Amino acid sequence: MHQLMDMFALPEMTLLANAIEHFINNNIPFDPEYVFHDVRGAVQGVHKSGELHAEVMKNIEHYIEKGPEVAQLLNKLVSEGKQLFLITNSEFPFVNKGMAYMLGNDWCDMFDVIITNSRKPQFYNEHSRPFRLYDKHSHTQSWDSKVTQFKKGQVYQEGNLFKLQEMTHWYGYKVLYIGDHVYSDLADPTLKLGWRTGAIIPELESEIKTINSETFKKSVTWQQGLQRLIEKMQVYDHPESQAIIEQWMKERNHLRRVTKEVFNPQFGSLFRTYHNPTYFTRRLSRFADIYMSSVVNVTNYSTSHTFYPRRAALPHEQPIHIG
Questions:
Q1: How confident is the model over 172-195, as pLDDT tens digits?
Q2: What CA–CA distance (Å, rounded) separates 248 from 173?
Q3: 153-172 pLDDT, tens per residue?
C-alpha cells in the first residue's frame, strides 16, 4: 500500500484525480493500478530530471515566502549555544538557492553540520556508506572516505545516521529533529536513536482556525450531548421513546457530516475521521513528540522549555474535570 502523506503528494493526488476523471467522462477503459504507476512515474521523472528544481530556482520568489522569522529563530538558537544540523535529500545548489534567499549568502555558517543528497530513508538504514565532502565552488564531491569529523560551514553528502551519531555524539532525547514527513524524516530517528522529533504540518493552521470557530464548537458540543442522550435513553423500548431516539439519531448523523465536511467536503479533517483519529494522526502520535504548522512556531518558547503530553481518557476511564 502506498501512502500519500506529504506535500509532494499533492500534485500526485491531483494528477491521479484528473486522469481518472478524464477516463470516466470519456468512457475510456482503464486499470487503476496502471494509472497510479504511470502518474507516479511521471512525478518522479520530473523530480529526478532536475526540471522541477530548475523551475523553482528560476522563480524562487514565486515559490518561497520570505520573512525574517526563520532567521530570527536560527540566530536565537545559535546565540544560546545550540548546535544546528540540516539533512536533506536535495542537491546543494537547490538548497543553497532557497536558504540564501531566506537567510543570506552566509547561511552555512549557522549550521554545525550540513548534509545534502542524503538519500533518506536509506540514510537511516545504511551502516557503511561514508560521508563525502562537497566543494561549494566547483560543485564536486570527494571520492575518498576520509571524512572523520564535521567542520562548521562545510557541506557533506550521503553518509549514514549511525556515522553521524558517532562523529557528533548527539544521542537520545537531547536531540530535536524536525521534518515534514512522518516516515521519511521522523520514524527512524526516534525508533533507532531515541531522538525527540517534531513534525511540520502546514494544514494545522487552517484546522485550528476551524475548530476554534463558534459554529464548529457549538455543533460538536450538541453532537456529544445528543450522543450521551441516545446512549442513556436507548434502554426505553416503547414506541414513543424509540421515535424520539430515531429523531436524535438523524440529527446526530447530520451533525457528524457537518463537522466533517467543514474541513474538506470530500475528505474531512486531516486529523479525524468523524470522531476517531485518522491513520495519519495515529502515525503522527507514534513518531512525533510535537507537531506544528511551521518551525517558527517555537520561536517564542525558551530553549529550555519542556512540552508535556496531555493525558487523554481511555475508553474505560472517566474524564477528569478540574475547576
A1: 888 999 998 888 888 888 988 899
A2: 49
A3: 899 999 999 999 999 999 88
Q: Is the peptide bond before 315 cis (omega within 30 degrees of 0)?
A: no
Question: 125-143: per-residue pLDDT in tens?
Answer: 888 889 999 998 888 888 8
Distance CA 162, CA 270 (A): 33
Packing angle, helices 239-261 and 214-233, rounded to 10: 150
Cell digits for 140? 564536486
Q: What is the DSSP letter of 146?
A: -
CA distance 277 to 85: 32
CB atoms within 10 A of CB 102: 18
Interior/surface letters 136-158, b for 16+ CB within 10 angstroms, e for the rest: eeeeebeeeeebeebeeebbbbb
Can you read off the three cell numbers belonging to residue 33? Answer: 493500478
Partners of 131 in the β-ladder:
158
